[in-house]
């Protein structure tokens, strides 16, 4: 059972998400927080697997709440909820440790899928809109700084990492490089282990900030 905490200051938004998620046999909403401070406290008390986190909330905003949740000894996965007029926060959210984001008016099926994807340890980076936004905000990094951490990667692993940074799934990476999906998954797992990152979202951040890839390189 996937345990979910809803963090949003709008009661109707929380009620809508609860209605959608509680209808699934493998998902249960364990709590609702109306501000960031409550989200951090309830994550510690209820130990959810996934937190759906709004960006703008009283007491403590979603970015700082995400940082505190991810820094915990047993962190929950965080999905940031955003709207197109708040997109400036998306890249910062990923840098803060979020595992991905969803647009607030997303379809119910996408919300359910997103929770399941993040709960199993993957990053919510597949939709085309995510690729575009990550590239846009990565472009704001002042000067990409080469990271010595990347020296541990083989040529094939670097190639795989660039495709992860473009938002490709394991199946899409396998098709592009003519590999089996299992081999692609193994490469991604080894890369995350070598670079000591939690998930694919953090690989994306590192790839852009190190200059390994640049926005729009894949087209």
Automatic annotation (TrEMBL):
Q: What SUPFAM superfamilies does the annotation carry?
A: C-terminal effector domain of the bipartite response regulators, CheY-like
* Gene Ontology MF: a single term: DNA binding
Q: Which domain of life is it from?
A: Bacteria
Segments forming domain HTH luxR-type? 146-211
Domain Response regulatory per the UniProt entry, residue ranges? 3-119
List, alphabetically, the Gene3D superfamilies matched: 3.40.50.2300
**Single GO BP term:** phosphorelay signal transduction system
Pfam family of this protein, just one? GerE
UniProt keyword terms in alphabetical order: DNA-binding, Phosphoprotein, Transcription, Transcription regulation
Q: Which residues carry this modification: 4-aspartylphosphate?
A: 54
PANTHER family, per database record: TRANSCRIPTIONAL REGULATORY PROTEIN NARL-RELATED, TWO-COMPONENT RESPONSE REGULATOR
| Protein name (Swiss-Prot/TrEMBL) | DNA-binding response regulator, NarL/FixJ family, contains REC and HTH domains
Q: Which organism is it from?
A: Allokutzneria albata (Kibdelosporangium albatum)
């Amino acid at each position: 059972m996937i345990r979910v905490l809803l963090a949003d200051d709008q009661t109707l938004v929380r009620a809508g998400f609860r209605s959608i998620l509680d209808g699934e046999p493998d998902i249960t909403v364990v709590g609702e927080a109306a501000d960031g401070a409550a989200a951090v406290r309830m994550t510690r008390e209820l130990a959810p697997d996934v937190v759906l986190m709004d960006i703008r909330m009283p007491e403590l905003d979603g970015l700082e709440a995400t940082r505190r949740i991810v820094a915990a000894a047993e962190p929950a996965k965080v999905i940031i909820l955003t709207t197109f007029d708040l997109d400036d926060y998306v890249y910062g959210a990923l840098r803060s440790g979020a595992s991905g984001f969803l647009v607030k008016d997303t379809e119910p099926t996408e919300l359910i899928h997103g929770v399941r994807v993040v709960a199993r340890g993957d990053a919510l980076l597949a939709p085309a809109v995510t690729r575009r936004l990550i590239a846009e905000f990565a472009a704001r990094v002042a000067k990409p700084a080469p990271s010595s951490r990347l020296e541990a990667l083989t040529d094939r692993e670097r190639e795989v990492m660039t495709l992860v940074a473009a938002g490709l799934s394991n199946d899409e990476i396998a098709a592009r490089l003519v590999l089996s999906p299992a081999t692609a998954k193994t490469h991604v797992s080894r890369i995350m282990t070598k670079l000591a990152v939690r998930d694919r979202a953090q690989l994306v951040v590192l790839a852009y900030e190190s200059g390994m890839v640049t926005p729009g390189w894949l087209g």
